[in-house]
Design goal:
With 327 residues, the chain is mostly beta strands. 9% of the residues lie in helices and 30% in strands. The chain has a four-stranded mixed β-sheet with strand order 2-1-4-6, with no helix packed on it. It has a four-stranded mixed β-sheet with strand order 3-8-7-5, with no helix packed on it.
Length: 327
């Protein structure tokens, strides 16, 4: 039998070289894993996935608490609006407070840019309802974050109630609606007419009064829920601060968690860059590490409702925010 000649070379390696290659690859994997888990606090301090963020709903032109809308000068004016969901006996006509044609139906709310509108809504009907503010002239989408009470998927049952708020950032006509599909078309819609910014409240001169506040940054075991002093829902969580304009405020924060945190008083809790009064402790780019603490002293500025938050992106959304009221 004739021998077949093979022209292409056949490459072989030795068991020793194979073992060496596997050891090198294993070393690379171990080193990479060490680096990754060594920076674990850094990874878990990143913002939550986009699906958990609510600020992009409604776009930049919808005012309120939209991401990217920027800080707005608060006027210190609060407008309280009590609204009841009501229905006709045949359920064909729906409205707020009174049926169309009756006095008080779907009252128009007038406000200035920077005013805070507080909605106290109650379901006085026999069906399910939900609430929100939108700038769209029809439909039930593009709700302004922070203005919602319940949702079409988890609506208010008869007799249930809720509270929300809306701070308009630009003039225009907005609409408060029932966000259950079809209910706006049946009459559950009212107007919010927003005019140019009113005269902003002025800061008072120094009063000589001093306040000291201390907060601990705390985290749940799975890091999904964050808070100041206690976790949201627990007694003492995110305590309200109430001071007078011109008072001297000293805040001390202690990072009692395992991740990175920073502090600031902001005009918009959804915008961690809207820090006011030079109230920062550390920063998102240079936060407090676990076990570290910091303090800041500043004067309370113009009257209004502000918020103290963790300024690391995403942490306020996960619960690290409280109310800071200047009177």
């Amino acid at each position: 039998m004739a021998q077949v000649e093979i022209n292409d070379p056949i490459y072989r390696t030795t068991p020793e070289r194979t073992t060496k290659m596997m050891v090198i690859m294993l070393g690379i994997c171990i080193a990479g894993g060490g680096i990754f888990f060594g920076m674990w606090d850094y990874w878990i301090s990143m913002p939550p996935p986009a699906g958990l963020l609510t600020g992009d709903v409604g776009g930049d032109d919808h005012g309120g608490s939209d991401k990217g809308s920027g800080a707005v000068t608060l006027t210190g004016v609060e407008i309280n609006s009590a609204l009841s969901f009501i229905e006709s006996s045949d359920f064909r006509v729906l409205a707020f407070n009174a049926l169309p044609g009756e006095e008080g139906a779907n009252p128009t709310i007038n406000a200035n840019v920077g005013d805070k509108i507080i909605f106290d809504v109650v379901n006085d009907g026999k069906s399910f309802h939900a609430f929100g503010v939108t700038k769209d002239t029809e439909g039930f989408s593009n709700l302004i974050p922070g203005s919602e009470v319940a949702s079409m998927n988890e609506p208010l049952k008869p007799g249930e109630s809720g509270v929300s708020e809306f701070i308009p950032t630009e003039p225009g006509t907005y609409y408060y609606i029932c966000t259950v599909p079809g209910h706006r078309m049946q009459g559950m819609v009212g107007e919010i007419v927003v005019t140019g910014a009113g005269a902003p409240a002025a800061a008072a001169p120094p009063t000589g009064v001093s306040h000291d506040f201390t907060f601990d940054f705390v985290e749940s075991d799975d890091f999904r829920t964050l808070g100041f002093d206690k976790l949201p829902g627990e007694d003492g969580a995110n305590p309200e601060i109430r001071v007078n304009s011109g008072d001297e405020i000293t805040v001390t924060t202690v990072n009692a968690g395992k991740s990175f945190h920073a502090f600031g008083v902001v005009s918009n809790p959804d915008d961690f860059t809207s820090v006011v009064f030079d109230s920062e402790i550390a920063a998102a780019t240079n936060p407090l590490k676990p076990g570290e603490s910091g303090s800041v002293t500043f004067l309370a500025g113009a009257p209004g409702t502000y918020y103290y938050i963790c300024t690391v992106p995403g942490h306020a959304l996960q619960g690290m925010q409280g109310t800071f009221i200047v009177e």
